[in-house]
Design a protein that fits this description.
The chain is mostly beta strands. It has one domain. The chain is built from two helices and 14 strands. It is globular.
């Protein structure tokens, strides 16, 4: 995706505060709103209450604050980071959480760890790691275009980062989630109902 980032949206709750929860529910909502969804994917890691664990900004509204706490698990494997679309929707960025986040984004989701930072793979990743999972993430190429990706089979974090770096030619990339991750494309028909529950979800619309 490049150019008009207004085609990229982030969703968590309906206006009445109820959760979308599934890709299928978000798909139906977008159609009812006159949108034409092309791709849907879960966004950042969330807690058991289905709340984004980190920063969550939709259409310029902050619904969850930036999380700079320490903890365990992938989200807290430093450096973690933020994927954001600028307030004027003209540019995308992925920045480490610990860097000053002096921006007023139109859209932002926080997760972790960073897969790539300025072309370098996260130093904690090991090519011989036994930990393999389905994984999804977002990357940015040098020309500013955005790449959404999900693995078709379980992979190591090192392999997933290498994919963004070598195959997609991204300079920066952020891990979004794993194991439970899902991605839907328009060519697949309607998303299955009763599928995995999420908090934030990314949508690419026509």
């Amino acid at each position: 995706m490049r150019g008009n980032f207004s085609k990229l949206q982030l969703h968590w709750k309906r206006e009445d505060g109820s959760l979308f929860g599934t890709l299928a529910a978000l798909h139906d909502h977008l159609l009812a709103a006159g949108e034409k969804p092309l791709c849907l994917m879960n966004a950042g890691i969330f807690n058991p209450q289905q709340e984004p664990l980190g920063w969550h900004v939709e259409r310029g509204r902050e619904l969850r604050p930036l999380n700079r706490e320490a903890g365990e698990g992938n989200f807290f494997l430093m450096p973690n980071g933020v994927f954001a679309i600028s307030g004027d929707q003209l540019s995308a960025s992925i920045r480490p959480t610990q860097e000053p986040q002096e921006m007023n984004p139109f859209l932002a989701t926080q997760s972790g760890p960073l897969l790539l930072h300025r072309g370098a793979i996260h130093q904690a990743f090991k090519p011989e790691s036994p930990n393999k999972n389905i994984r999804n993430g977002v990357g940015i190429r040098e020309d500013g275009s955005v790449v959404l990706a999900i693995s078709s089979s379980p992979v190591r974090l090192y392999d997933f980062a290498t994919y963004f770096k070598d195959t997609q030619r991204c300079t920066d990339a952020l891990y979004l989630d794993g194991t439970i991750s899902r991605c839907w494309l328009k060519s697949e028909g309607k998303p299955p109902s009763g599928d995995q529950q999420f908090a934030g979800m990314l949508a690419v619309v026509a």
